[in-house]
Design goal:
The complex is a heterotrimer of chains A (about 210), B (about 425) and C (about 900). Chain A has helices at about 5-15, 25-35, 40-50, 55-65, 85-90, 90-105, 145-155, 185-205, and strands spanning about 75-80, 115-120, 135, 140. By secondary structure, chain A is α+β, with helices and mostly antiparallel strands. Chain A has a domain at about 75-155: Glutaredoxin (3-Layer(aba) Sandwich), CATH 3.40.30. The longest helix of chain A is centred in the last third of the chain and has 23 residues, at about 185-205. Chain A is globular and about 55 Å long. Chain B is α/β, with parallel strands linked by helices. Chain B has 3 domains: about 20-230, 3-Layer(aba) Sandwich (Rossmann fold); about 235-325, Ubiquitin-like (UB roll) (Roll); about 330-425, de novo design (two linked rop proteins), CATH 1.20.1440. Chain B has helices spanning about 20-25, 30-35, 40-50, 60-65, 90-95, 100-115, 125-140, 175-180, 210-215, 215-220, 225-230, 260-265, 305-310, 330-345, 350-365, 370-385, 400-425; strands at about 75-80, 115-120, 160-165, 205-210, 230, 235, 240-245, 250-255, 280-285, 320-325. In chain B, the strands form 3 sheets. In chain B, strands 3-2-1-4 form a 4-stranded parallel β-sheet, with helices on both faces. A 4-stranded mixed β-sheet of chain B has the order 8-7-10-9, with no helix packed on it. In chain B, helix 5 crosses helix 6 (about 100-115), helix 6 crosses helix 7 (about 125-140) and helix 14 (about 330-345) runs antiparallel to helix 17. With about 900 residues, chain C is of the alpha/beta class. Chain C has 31 helices and 38 strands. A 7-stranded mixed β-sheet of chain C has the order 15-14-27-26-25-16-17, sandwiched between helices. Chain C has a 6-stranded mixed beta barrel with strand order 33-37-34-36-35-38. Chain C has a 5-stranded mixed β-sheet with strand order 2-1-5-3-4, sandwiched between helices. In chain C, a hairpin with a 4-residue loop joins strand 6 (about 145) and strand 7. The chains are: A alpha+beta (about 210), B alpha/beta (about 425), C alpha/beta (about 900). The complex binds flavin mononucleotide, iron/sulfur cluster (SF4) and FE2/S2 (inorganic) cluster (FES). The site of iron/sulfur cluster (SF4) has 14 residues of chain B, from helix 15 and helix 17. FE2/S2 (inorganic) cluster (FES) binds near residues 51 and 72 of chain C.
Chain lengths: ~210, ~425, ~900
């Protein structure tokens, strides 16, 4: 029995086809599975293992290396507040403390209503708008406690859905064009191109 | 300064800079078209002439790296957009604001290298950037500028946009390749020394940074010598500097290399605009948190790769963090060390265990449980990770994350030992 | 063989002295060979180096001055300067050690590894006196089982990745992997998917700390209480070298010894943990029923008034002699013996001497219907394991090697993984080698001969395969590919020859082998017969038609004729024929040398043995149904309880070590035969086992020169391949981290015994000249032409495949509680296509019907089972079935070339 929905399974297979080796799709497929379930459930990892040809232990082992992949459930919104050096200098600790107080969870925890998981993150590469906050990996650019509170209120009210999709939605834009040519065709064309280039070189050289 | 062109941020002023439409009306594809009319060798020659240094951190000349690509039936080009070095946010700007320029650069590089499969590895947290770069790739396909027989040239290329999943170490190129192969991001041990010999799937691979390849359309269009005419010595062209911390205008600035000093960057009203907080510089981190710190007396150093290296640090990823005199040095070092400890991949004993140990000592010092002997213990443990505490560092580990750990601790203690002592005697931090 | 590729040498400087090493060798190994031990944790000589623990840092002089490099990952180069003892090196290594200890619990006093822990040892030698680490240590929940046999204590783990690499790289089963990052990295299984690998015990052995422990050993002993002897594992016929350890007179642990030509330090879990069965039950052994395989036999017994009663040896020997004498009339008809593959070579020789040489019957068969023609085995050109592992092409015409000869599979897997060998696999069902195969030529029962002929270029065989009524299992291209891999004359090709299915007559495989041999004369054969010392039994004449030395009866030497009173005139009965005759009452005496009823591939016949009219003499170490039914029972010492020699699949004769004393009055096998002979008036003249070994060296042509002193020479530590054609044991690779105790240091100095046709062996400084072997090695041309003709399958039936599984209901498994738990009930594995036709699926129960029996059993959809076949494991009981033991043996049609089965839904 497949755990991924038929639609997700199709997307998964398309992703696998993009790579020279199926295992390369392991992480994209984990993102995909999180998109379906919010986090990586065991059955999803088992299915990913089958698709890419490794053991479930290897999928789990790989997934747990990465911060964005969760093997335990998380809230609908994962709120990350950066406290690395640049954000620290801009009040990251204070903003995090505020978020903890207003969401009622310590960093690493999930609010009682299951809506918010708060994370203390390392640098999110947006250090000019510090302290940096991401919700579901979207930069929200709310650097003050007040701005953070109103964002949380909006999310509670179910707003900003377009900008901040549910957790896991990472690859909203799909590859639209498949591999137009098979890898063999590409190799053959490359040979032709090389010959043509060599010819041009001789023409230019003369 | 006004004469200096904007090479990679030319479309920054447009709100729709990331769209294909804007791209087309602002010179998009021109570099690519020109490159495709040249021979791959000629394109390589321009890049060589430009003396384009890699923008990912190590500063290795792109042309030289390309020339090292082992001849093989299959080879790959991988673009490093993992950007996770703390306080570095220039690639973020490029992928969100000018994804087409990046894709064009990738195609030019692939053509020059005669590689038919390229990957753009983007930091997973760049959700918007991933969408925009994927859209750009889709747009190129739609325009016939990707896929088979690009723009009728006979050259074919596929680009896969690959999302990371949150691990700093995947910026290290061999770890990135492991991750791209669907594995844990464990850096590969050397030898082989370069992916150009054995890289992705064991095949020769060139890994270049996002900013590095974003320069290519301009270089091809304007010539390598035009690029080399900017800057000085080995540091040519312009470069993106990400300025953050205690400055009035933090942000990313495209600046001609060497011609500007740290002081200009930080204080010039059209750039950093001066120091906030106490208004006085206490220390700066010149090139990402892996770099040893500079102090006020180095502010007049020019922003050039060799100039900074000669002064005992590195320009690295081009990110500069300003700390004012009110900043607690113990806390700064602790926070940076905590980062390394969280991000150590866990392979090498000194890095895995050392980073965690150092972090816990610093935490204790900051929070009032420090002992006087901790200060020298910190240094000795650092010495066990980077013997001699020299720069560039020696290492007891596989990759250079390990020996980067001591940079902040060594810098902070050498210069501000009294602050560490005060943390012990005062029972913790007194910096507000 | 190693001697064929002369290795290039380089010279480098090691701490100021010039040292020569092999090119490409890592500094750590080269230095060790030169007597300098560089500390290490992650490096294992039998796995790819990874250089992660950083303990082995040394200084290497390079273009940029001297730098610290991991000695395990840097190959020596000509002129390289390596320093291992500088201050800088010492500081780096001490630093690594201190880091490793930072989070390591200080529970050495209660840790199983305490006393033999490299981390502890290094700490004592180099470590800082007092810990500078005052922080709280990393915490994980206490030991987690990662499999039925292995426990993981994550706090003790030092992340060296030896276990995870072993699982992935060596065993090919990545069921454990690292999870997490940085200092949170832990070894983990997937929830609900334990590390159930046949090789899991190796991870315990190679774990440099006490993070992985084996449940059968936990808290059993402390290393300093252990005594140890080197021996050979007799779990199967690979013959892995082992260190056998005991404490207070009981076996506590087996460790793999790194034998270069054989096991590369690995063991399978069956071999590693079956010592439990030797220990038996400490208290209450006598309460176990005599038929219980866990029961150790501690005293001779004779039946009086229908009951077995314990007696002394002299009475028992008299009773046994009497039984044999009254049964025997120096013919093959009235007396015979089955079993004997568990004996030592000496025991096998002694029993052959008694039965054949004194009592004159040739009805003696150590193979239990699962073997191959002994004369063929003795004469086909033989390959060694090393040759098979170095072959360019390996043809697998045998049962599943992972199930039958587990460590041979590891050796072959390594060569397939590294691209050294291509595998042509003829397995009739999904097997460990079919997964690795370059070409899979799935052979349904009966088809192996056709495939062999097709490989020879026989067009009609090829077209017959192509038009197989059940559809072809491979394409013409596959066949062509295989033909090209075999080459012109089979040079560099090794054929692994065994029994792919016990439901297929041996003659089919024998004919296929002969065909291949005639067409490809340069190809060599590695026998894949699994019973422990079955090869020794064949060599010692404990099979019909043979006398010791791989010699057919007709060629018995003058030397043997002098020693033995009698040489039987004609070949005797096989095991099955004997049991048939015994049940029918025509054979009056049956000697059982350790065999079990469930070993017989004819379940109906086996069921009648215990009520047969004749005299049953059982020699065994453990209980069993036959013991229960015997007239006389003689208790024998088993593995680890007696010295001697054993012979593996290659023909390698290696020594067995005695570690513990057999329980009660049990005697070694050879002695029992000798005493009975004496009672019968024939004095073999042996007073110690060495006398038997010497006699074998004298009378068995293949074993000529294989005297006790030759066998005891250091160069023979890994055993010697007979006939002695020279063998090599290059410098031993060692993993002192993993093989603590005395075996490793002792083996450091192993000499080498090389040369293609060496006839010299060094014995305490003297060269002993061995005469060149005089053994027939040419195979008689196939007498019956094309071999048997297998009836065409009918489309309503599935052809029966009887495969082996490691944890079956065999005595070794049943006797060891830890292993017995791992057995699984038999299921019928059927191709989904055939299941669909019947409208059933995995988990459903079906009825299987043959002329012999009807069996209701669960099915499992198995892609790897060929269409038109049904596969079941041999000697395994089905769940909820009338047929309790050995389900598949009840289905097999005795005497038929193949068995066809009707499958019906319920
Ligand atoms: C720990 C570590 C992290 C790194 N992170 C990045 C990164 O985020 N982005 C990047 O482009 N290069 C990073 N690098 C440098 C890369 O290894 C590599 O040198 C670079 O991508 C090559 O591209 P370039 O030659 O165009 O600079 C990192 C190196 C190390 C050791
Ligand atoms: S130095 Fe640290 S990050 Fe780099 S490979 Fe070693 S453990 Fe991993
Ligand atoms: S790094 Fe060489 S033994 Fe571990």
């Amino acid at each position: 029995m497949n755990h991924l929905t038929p639609e997700m399974r199709t997307r998964a297979e398309k992703l696998v086809a993009l790579y020279p080796e199926p295992r390369s799709a392991l992480i994209p497929l984990c993102h995909l599975a999180q998109e379906q379930d919010g986090y990586l459930v065991d059955d999803a990892m088992i299915e990913i293992a089958e698709i890419v040809g490794v053991t479930p232990a290897e999928v789990r082992g790989t997934a747990t290396f990465y911060d964005m992949l969760h093997t335990d459930s998380v809230g609908r919104y994962v709120v990350g507040v950066c406290t690395n050096i640049a954000c620290l200098l801009a009040g990251g600790d204070e903003l995090l403390a505020h978020a903890e107080a207003s969401l009622g969870v310590r960093a690493g925890g999930t609010s009682e209503d299951g809506l918010f998981t708060l994370e203390e993150t390392e640098c999110l590469a947006d250090c000019d708008i510090a302290p940096c906050v991401q919700v579901n990996h979207r930069y929200v650019r709310t650097t003050t406690p007040e701005a953070l509170d109103s964002l949380v209120a909006e999310l509670r009210a179910g707003e900003r859905g377009e900008e901040i999709p549910p957790h896991g939605t990472l690859i909203r834009v799909e590859r639209t064009v498949g591999l137009e040519a098979s890898k063999d065709t590409i190799a053959a064309e490359r040979a032709t191109a090389r010959a043509a280039a060599a010819e041009r070189a001789t023409v230019e050289g003369s | 300064m006004s004469a200096v062109p904007k090479i990679v941020t030319s479309r920054r002023e447009y709100a729709d800079s990331y769209t294909l439409e804007r791209y087309k009306t602002t010179g998009g594809f021109d570099g690519l078209k020109k490159a495709l009319s040249m021979t791959p060798e000629a394109v390589c020659a321009e890049v060589d002439a430009a003396s384009l240094l890699g923008r990912g951190g190590a500063g290795f000349p792109a042309g030289r790296k390309w020339s090292m690509l082992r001849k093989s039936d299959v080879s790959y080009l991988v673009i490093n957009g993992d950007e996770s070095e703390p306080a570095t946010f220039k690639d973020h700007l490029l992928v969100e604001h000018d994804p087409h320029q990046l894709v064009e650069g990738v195609i030019i590089a692939a053509f020059a290298l005669q590689v038919t499969q390229a990957f753009i590895f983007l930091r997973g947290e760049f959700a918007l950037g991933l969408e925009r770069v994927q859209s750009a790739v889709n747009g190129f396909y739609a325009e016939g500028a990707l896929g088979s027989n690009i723009l009728g040239s006979g050259f074919s290329l596929d680009i896969v946009v690959h999302p990371g999943a949150g691990a700093y170490i995947c910026g290290e190129e061999t770890s990135l390749l492991e991750s791209l192969e669907g594995k844990r991001g464990f850096p590969r041990i050397k030898p082989p020394f370069f992916p150009a010999a054995i890289g992705l799937y064991g095949e020769p691979t060139v890994v270049n940074n996002v900013e590095t390849v974003s320069n290519l359309p301009w270089i091809v269009l304007n010539g390598g010598s035009a690029f080399a005419a900017l800057g000085e010595g080995r540091s040519t062209g312009t470069r993106l500097f990400a300025l953050s911390g205690k400055v009035r205008n933090p942000g990313v600035f495209e600046i001609e290399m060497v011609k500007t000093t740290f002081r200009d960057l930080i204080f010039n009203p059209s750039l950093g605009g001066g120091v906030t907080g106490s208004g006085e510089v206490k220390a700066i981190i010149p090139g990402g948190v892996s770099a040893p710190w500079f102090y006020p007396e180095q502010l007049d150093l020019p922003l050039g790769q060799d100039e900074v290296a000669d002064a005992g640090s590195m320009l690295g990823s081009g990110s500069i963090v300003v700390m004012d005199t009110s900043t607690c040095m113990v806390k700064a070092a602790w926070r940076i060390t905590r980062f390394f400890s969280r991000e150590s991949c866990g392979q090498c004993t000194p890095c895995r265990e050392g980073s965690g140990w150092l972090e816990r000592i610093l935490y204790r010092l900051e929070n009032g449980q420090g002992r006087m002997e901790d200060i020298d213990l910190l240094l000795d443990l650092c010495d066990n990770i980077a013997p001699g505490l020299t720069w560039p560092p020696q290492q007891t580990t596989i990759c250079v994350l390990g020996p980067s750990i001591p940079s902040s601790i060594h810098s902070a203690i050498s210069r501000f030992r009294d602050e560490f002592v005060a943390h012990v005697t005062n029972g913790g931090c007194t910096h507000g | 063989m190693a001697d064929e590729q002369a290795t290039e040498k380089v010279t480098f400087t090691l701490d100021g002295r010039e040292v020569t090493a092999e090119k490409g060798e890592m500094i750590i190994a080269a230095a060790e060979a030169a007597g300098t031990y560089i500390p290490r944790f992650c490096y294992h000589p039998r796995m790819e180096p990874v250089g992660v623990c950083r303990m082995c840092l040394v200084e290497v002089e390079g273009p940029r001055g001297s730098t610290l490099m991991p000695a395990c990952y840097v190959a020596v180069g000509d002129g390289m300067e390596v320093v291992t003892d500088s201050e800088k090196v010492k500081k780096a290594q001490d630093g690594v050690l201190e880091f490793l200890l930072a989070n390591h619990p200080l529970d050495c006093p209660v840790c199983d590894k305490g006393g033999e822990c490299p981390l502890q040892d290094q700490t004592l030698v180099h470590g800082p006196g007092e810990s500078r680490f005052v922080e709280e240590k990393r915490h994980f929940a206490k030991p987690l089982p990662i499999s039925e046999l292995v426990l993981l204590d994550r706090e003790r783990c030092i992340q060296c990745s030896r276990c995870t690499r072993f699982a992935e790289e060596v065993a090919g089963e990545a069921l454990i992997d690292f999870a997490g990052r940085g200092d949170q990295v832990e070894v983990a299984t997937f929830p609900g998917r334990p590390f159930s690998s046949y090789y899991s015990g190796n991870t315990v052995q190679i774990c440099p700390v006490g993070a992985l422990t084996a449940t059968p050993y936990r808290f059993a002993a402390r290393p300093w209480d252990l005594e140890q002897v080197e021996s050979t594992c007799t779990g199967c016929a690979v013959g892995c070298r082992v260190a056998v350890q005991s404490s207070a007179g009981r076996l506590t642990r087996l460790l793999g010894v790194d034998s270069d030509p054989v096991n590369h330090s690995w063991l399978c879990d069956k071999g590693r943990f079956s010592f439990e069965g030797v220990n038996g039950v400490d208290e209450g052994n006598e309460e176990l029923a005599l038929r219980d395989p866990r029961r150790r036999l501690t005293a001779p017994m004779v039946r009086r008034d229908g009951v077995l009663v314990e007696v002394g040896w002299s009475e028992a020997i008299k009773a046994a002699a009497h039984l044999l004498q009254t049964s025997s009339s120096t013919s093959n008809e009235e007396l015979g013996a089955i079993g004997g593959a568990q004996l030592t070579n000496e025991g096998a020789y002694a029993w052959a001497s008694l039965l054949k040489g004194v009592l004159g019957t040739d009805s003696v068969d150590a193979q239990l219907g699962d073997g191959l023609d002994p004369e063929l085995m003795a004469t086909l050109p033989r390959a060694t394991i090393d040759e098979a592992a170095a072959a360019c092409t390996v043809i697998v015409l045998s049962g599943d090697l992972r199930e039958e000869l587990p460590v041979l599979f590891l050796r072959l897997r390594e060569s397939a993984r590294t691209g050294r060998s291509s595998i042509i696999d003829l397995s009739p069902a999904a097997s460990s080698t079919s997964e690795l195969a370059t070409v899979a030529l799935g052979a349904r029962p009966g088809d192996a001969l056709l495939i062999a002929r097709a490989l020879e270029g026989d067009a009609s065989a090829r077209s017959q395969l192509a038009t197989h009524p059940e559809g072809r299992t491979f394409t013409d291209e596959d066949l062509d590919r295989a033909v090209s891999l075999i080459g012109d004359d089979g040079t560099g090709v090794v054929i692994i020859l065994g029994r792919p299915s016990l439901a297929e007559d041996a003659s089919i495989i024998e004919s296929a082998a002969l065909q291949l041999h005639h067409r490809y004369p340069k190809a060599t054969f590695l026998p894949a017969l699994r019973r422990a010392n079955v090869m020794g039994a064949i060599d010692m004449g404990l099979v019909p038609g043979m006398v010791p030395g791989r010699v057919p009866l007709r060629n018995a030497s003058a030397g043997l004729r002098e020693t033995w009173k009698l040489i039987p005139a004609s070949a005797g009965r096989s095991s099955i024929e004997q049991v048939e005759a015994f049940v029918a009452g025509t054979q009056r005496g049956l000697v059982v040398l350790g065999a079990q009823l469930s070993d017989l591939p004819d379940a109906a016949l086996a069921a009648r043995v215990t009520s047969a009219p004749g005299n049953l003499l059982v020699i065994a170490g453990h209980g069993g149904e036959l013991v229960d039914a015997a007239a006389v029972v003689l208790p024998a010492a088993v593995a680890h309880e007696r010295p001697g020699t054993t012979t593996n699949i290659e023909g390698r004769v290696s020594t067995l070590g005695q570690k513990v004393v057999a329980p009660g009055l049990a005697w070694p096998d050879w002695m029992i035969a000798g005493e009975i002979a004496f009672e019968l008036g024939h004095d073999f003249g042996w007073s110690t086992i060495d006398d038997v070994t010497e006699e074998i060296a004298r009378v068995a042509p293949s074993h000529e020169g294989l005297t006790t002193s030759v066998l005891a020479a250091p160069a023979a530590a890994d055993g010697l391949v007979v006939p002695l054609k020279g063998t090599s044991s290059p410098r031993a690779l060692l993993d002192p981290v993993a093989t603590p105790g005395l075996a490793s240091p002792e083996r450091v100095g192993l000499g080498s015994f090389t040369g293609t046709l060496a006839t010299d062996v060094e014995v305490s400084g003297d060269l002993v000249r061995l005469s060149s072997p005089d053994v027939p090695t040419s195979v008689a041309p196939d007498a019956d032409g094309d071999g048997p003709t297998v009836p065409a399958p009918d489309s309503y039936s599935l052809r029966l495949v009887a495969t082996r599984t490691l944890y079956d209901d065999g005595a070794q498994v049943l006797a060891a509680p830890a292993l017995a738990l791992l057995r699984k009930p038999a299921v019928a594995r059927v191709n989904p296509y055939d299941l669909d036709r019947l409208g059933v699926t995995t988990g459903d129960r079906v009825r299987l019907r043959t002329p012999s029996a009807t069996l209701v059993i669960e099915v499992e959809a198995a892609e790897g089972t060929l269409r038109g076949t049904v596969a079941l494991d041999f000697n395994v009981a089905a769940a909820d079935s009338d047929v309790h033991a050995n389900a598949v043996a009840s289905l097999i049609e005795p005497g038929s070339l193949v068995t066809d089965v009707r499958m019906e839904s319920l």
